[in-house]
Amino acid sequence: MTTTDPTAPDTDTDTDTDTDTDTDTQYVVSRVVDASPQEVFALLADPARHHETEPTDWVRGPLEEDPAPLTEVGQVFGIEMFHVNTPGRYDMHNRVIAFEQDRTLAWEPGQYGPDGELGTGGWTWRYDLAPADGTSGGDSATEVTLTYDWSAVPAPVREGFGIPPFPPSFLEESLAALEKAVTAG
Length: 185
What we know:
The chain has helices at about 35-45, 155-160, 170-185, and strands spanning about 15-20, 25-35, 60, 75-85, 90-100, 105-110, 120, 125-130, 140-150. It is an alpha+beta fold and about 180 residues long. The chain is globular, with a radius of gyration of 16 Å. The chain starts with 16 loop residues before the first strand and ends with a helix. It has a single domain (about 15-185), classed as 2-Layer Sandwich (Alpha-D-Glucose-1,6-Bisphosphate, Chain A, domain 4). Strands 1, 2, 3, 4, 5, 6, 7, 8 and 9 form a nine-stranded antiparallel sheet that branches.
C-alpha cells in the first residue's frame, strides 16, 4: 500500500518541467530555473532555507538555530519534519553523500539510534545543476534535475512504510517551490 502526503498539491503540466519516472526505484524531474547555478546551489546548500524547496509544510526548518552551509561529503544537517501519517513532528538528520560546488548536492536522510549511530533508510535526494539559456531574458538559467531514489530501501520497508510516499508530481512542485524561493526578491 502506498501512502501519500494529503497536503501535497496536484500538479498541472508545466512546459518547463520534464519528468522521467522509473517508478520501481526512482523519480527524476527536471526544470529550468531563471537563476544561475551558483544562486540555486547556495539555496540548496543552506539548511536554514531547506523548507523553501518543499511544496508543503512537511519540511519545517533546521534543528540548529544557525546551521552551517553544506560544504562537503559526510556533513550532517538536521531538519524538523512533520507528517500526519507519522507521530506528527519528528527529526531527520541528512548525511551529504555527493557534493560538487554549484553542480551536485545529494543526501541520505536518517535518524540517530540509541547507540548514537546515524541509520538511514535507503532513500536519497539528489540535485544536479547545469547551465541553461536564460528563460526570462536574463543572462543565466539553470537546469535543475531532482532525483528521489529509493532503490536501496529493502522491499519489506518499502511495503511497510509506503515508499515512495508521494507521486512524481511532488518533485515537480518541489522544483517550482525552489524556483520561487531562488527568484524572489
